[in-house]
Structure formats: C-alpha cells, structure tokens
Fold Membrane-associated oxidoreductase.
Amino acid sequence: MLTWTERALRHAFRAGTPLDAGGAPVRAAVIAELLLAGPPARPGRTARVDLAGARITGRLDLTGARFDAPLRLRRCTFDEPLVLDHAEIGSVNLDECELPSIDAESLRVRRWFGLRHARVAAGAWLHHIVVGGGLDLSGTTFGAEVDVQRAVVDGDAKLGHGTVYPAGVRIDGARIAGDLNIANATARAAAPDATAIRASGAVVGGGIWLHGTVAEGLVMLIGVRAEGAITLQGTVLRAAEGSALLLIEARTAMLTLRPAPDSVGAIVLRDAHVGRLVDDPATWPPACTVELAGLTYDRISRRSDDTTAWTARERLAWMARFDAAFTPGPYDQLAAALRRDGREGEARQVLRVRERRRHRAMGRLGASWGAVQDATIGFGYRPARALLWLIAVLAGGSTWFALHGPLAPVKPGESPTWDPLLYTLDLLVPLVDLGHEHAWNPVGADKAVAVLVMAAGWVLATTVVTGAGRALGR
C-alpha cells in the first residue's frame, strides 16, 4: 500500500515534475521500482525521480541497474547507505542530502554526478566511476575516506570549494578531461603515515587547482600529468613529519608553488618537468624545505600572470638553504632558464656559485683549489680577471727587479741585455723560453720573488686551461 507521498511521487515521476515531500518518509523500494519498472511517462514528458525533502527509509540499492531517467534526490535524509555499484544511470543529483555512506564502484553516469553541500557520515566509494559530464562534490562534508581512484570524467572534477575530507581523498589513476579542482578544500590524513590528498598517476586535460586548500598530511601527486597548470597558491601544507608534498616525476605546463606562510614539511620536486615555474623565495615558508634534484623547467617567474623575476642572488640564497648535499642540476637548470630570458650575466653568476659549492663539497683541498680558480678567473666565467692578474703580477715583478737589478748573469759576457720586464714575463709564462729566465741568477730575496712569479704563472695557466675547458664544455 503506497502512502500519500509515495502516490504523489508516482504521479510526479510520470509527469517529470519535482516533488517536495516536506519531511515525509518515502520507502527506498518505491523509488527503486519507479526507476527500474515504473509507469510510462505522460505524452511529451520525460519520466524522472525528482524528490526533495524526503526521509528515505530502507536501503536504496541499485546495484547493476540500467536506466536513463535522471535520479534527483535533494535535501533528502537516508536511513541506510546508498548503493549504486556497477549501475548505469542518466544523471545523479544528491545535493544537500544526508547519507550514512555511498557505494558507487564502477558506476556509469551518462551526463552528470552531483553531491554538493551534502553530509556523508562515513565515506564515499566512487572507485572507477565513469561520468560523461562533470563530477561535483563541492561543499560536502565526509566522515571517512573518499575514494575516487581510477575515475574517468569527461568534464571537470570539482572536489573542493568547502569540501571536507577528514580521512583524506584518493584520486590515483584518474582520467579527467577538464580541470581537477580541489581548491579551498580541507583534507586530513587519517594517520601519520597516511595521505591527505592522493592523485598519483592522474592524467588531467586541464589544470589541477589546490589554491586555498588546507592539507593536514601528505599531498601525493607522484607522476601526475596536467596539460594546464598545477596551482598551489596560499595552500596550507602541514606534515606531522617528513614530506608535505610529493610532485616526483610530475609533468605540467606551469607549476605555481607559493604555499601559505605557516606550511610545514618537505616539498619534493624530484625529476618533475614544468614548462614554467612560478614561486617566490621572498615569501617561502620558513618551515618548508624543497628538493630540486632532477627538476627541469623552461622558464621561471615570481607571478603566474607575467614573467616578473627575482634576481639570481635572491634565488641562490634561497637554494643554499636546502642544498646540504650538493647537486649541480638545480644550478644548471636555473642558469639555462636565465639564459633563455636573455640574462646571461646572471646565468654566469649562478654557474660560478655552482662551481664554488661543488669544490667546497670536495673537502679542504678541493675548496682551496676552488678558491684559487674563483679568485683568478671566476671558474672560467670571468676570463678577463685572469688578464688583470697577469698584468698585476707582471707589473709587480717588473717593478721589483727594476729596483733590485740587474741580477748576476749565469754566464758573464753571454747574457742578453738586462730587461726586468722581459725577465718577469719569461718567469711568468710557463713552457715559453724568451732567453731571459735562465740567463740570470737570482739570490736571496730576488730568488724568492722569482719563485713567486713562476708559481703565479703556473697557477694562472692551470686555472685558465681548466676554465677554458669548462667554457668549451658549455
């Protein structure tokens, strides 16, 4: 025997019109019967269940069901879980409903699936859901983990804008044609070793939006692919321990990485590639570290709407905070990006710092040799400095020997005319014999100066050759 509300729902189904139950109960079995074997629609109408404000009693189990009629249950309260496993439905709208849980594994929705501003006491199992249009969970509060792994969405997947995931959300392996929008959501890991947001291996045709999101726990985006941008602007990343964000091997056209100032934890960009990297060392959270090893990018800027850049000096100071174990890759990438922007001088500055830190990592001897190369020719990136050193040593040596010469000849009567400039030059330039070095016999202080000039010549020659090899290698 149907109740008055259930009879009204039957008439509304045939007419394709909405019905507000005003809090009256409606049995789940009645709804299932209408969807699976309901009466035909009235002429010119489309049959559908469009029910609002009802208390749905019993379990609405549509496992394996096939129907094209829209299912619209708004502001309804479910006594038992909603089950849509392996069903094929035209569209689903559960806005503002209260449910114990949702099981919808491998559900196929031809047009749209909406669960907006709802409350789900437990979690939602949307594993491998296939949606021909959009998937929208905006503003919904869940009580347990939400699983959207391997979902296939032909439109946008809206999982943010006030949505609360107290035990995290999983989107691993999803295929989304539009945007994956998790902006302004709140997600918490269920345990210290769990994740707050997980979308590893997801392929997104648009962008991945996480601006304004609060993630209490690890955000794992390993191997994600986004044709558009990945945006973390004002995102709060808080990891109890270890990593806060994993973007290992990610690929995207643009990465905006400007987490909120109170973020905590390590951000790992290892082996990722982005077309354009947007960040700002000046506003980087003090409690966040970053791993840049293997990261490649084409351009860098301070904001996403232009190419405003910081100076190389600012960037290098920021990188030095996280470069405990020296790796050359981040410096090479920065220099290459600066060159692409026509900032050749700053690119050379970066490469000099790279060499300086590389030599420091080689121990005391390596650091000493690096200091010599840096002071003389700037590791090959300031070659004019070698000429200045050459002129300085030549001038100093010539002045000394002019004031203290002539020296005693090795073979009296066979020596060339005394010339302090040529004598100093012969001492200074290795492997070249101008006929003066071996013609004179310095003693005492003169010999000490001669040895210093010769040593300076060998150091300059060695560093110039090393620097030239490095320059040719570029």
